[in-house]
Amino acid sequence: MQPIEITAEWNSDKAAWIATSVLFDQLEIEAATMDELIDCLRARIMDVIGLEQIGRAPAGKQTFILTKIWPVSSQISLI
Prior knowledge:
Blueprint: E1 4-11, E2 16-21, E3 24-31, H1 34-49, H2 51-56, E4 64-68, E5 74-77
Parallel strand pairs: 1-4
Antiparallel strand pairs: 1-2, 2-3, 4-5
């Protein structure tokens, strides 16, 4: 399976990181720090796709990649 990509962009008006994904319509998370955003994303992903699905999938079957846009692009594997 292809990794599911999530994008995090800094919003200076809100002074927060905002994470979105084209595959999850209901996914839009705001957090003041990147660490907080990652924690919120992990919890939300479990809610959206279900912890049981991940538990039954073979190891490495589904990967979630967070791409941080600002100030420099970088990627973090979430699961």
